[in-house]
Amino acid sequence: GAVVSQHPSWVICKSGTSVKIECRSLDFQATTMFWYRQFPKKSLMLMATSNEGSKATYEQGVEKDKFLINHASLTLSTLTVTSAHPEDSSFYICSAGGLAGGGTDTQYFGPGTRLTVL
Amino acid sequence: GNSVTQMEGPVTLSEEAFLTINCTYTATGYPSLFWYVQYPGEGLQLLLKATKADDKGSNKGFEATYRKETTSFHLEKGSVQVSDSAVYFCALSDPGYSTLTFGKGTMLLVSP
Fold it and tell me: Which of A14, A54, B2, B80 is 20 to 30 A from B19, alpha carbon to alpha carbon?
């Protein structure tokens, strides 16, 4: 149980285009989903926290107009990188927490999406 | 604020060696503590957790004990395998609040 999927697993796009990444909790309903960015040899940086049906809470320094987050249901959250630039290239990881039986403090992570902007 | 400090890697071991990865934390109150593992090219997987002082989390031969007196949660395994090669992240969260604070990760490399 507690499986989280992400799609796509990798994407290459041209500078200036937008890319949408999906995060799904497959076998549980997640009240809260998180989006992280991971740089090479660095820890995970929390970008934003989203609760189903409400606006996402962004961490300081994260542009909310650039990284659009939608959490339309208890099993799906999307991250859209708008007008992507090469510096947005990174590994994006989502996680879901809530009702998985692991307690509200347990997050289950997706496999990540590698974004490369040319 | 909360913070997690891990030993820097990479940690290089031979197969069947004993593993310790140190983790200390700073937090108010009584956080929950976690170890996550990230295999190459993959996302993070929860390895083990502990929610209160003196609790021992264990999974797949790995263990960590919540030591409040030393604010530590060191990860140990008695005999590592090549397949344990990965990056290990120590993390904490405040009770009832799901945001995680991660350490920087420790890469473990196990050779045959």
Answer: B2
Rounded distance, CA A113 to CA A77, Å?
A: 14
Dist CA B23 CA B21 (whole Å): 7
**pLDDT one digit per residue (tens) for chain A, 118 residues:** 678 999 999 999 999 999 999 999 998 888 889 999 988 777 888 999 988 878 899 999 999 999 999 988 889 999 999 999 999 999 999 998 865 445 556 788 999 999 999 9
Reading the block at residue A38, the tokens are 């991971």
- Residues of A whose CB is below 8 A from B93: 105
B99-to-A46, A58, B110 alpha-carbon distances in Å: 9, 12, 31
Q: Do A105 and B105 touch (CB under 8 A)?
A: no
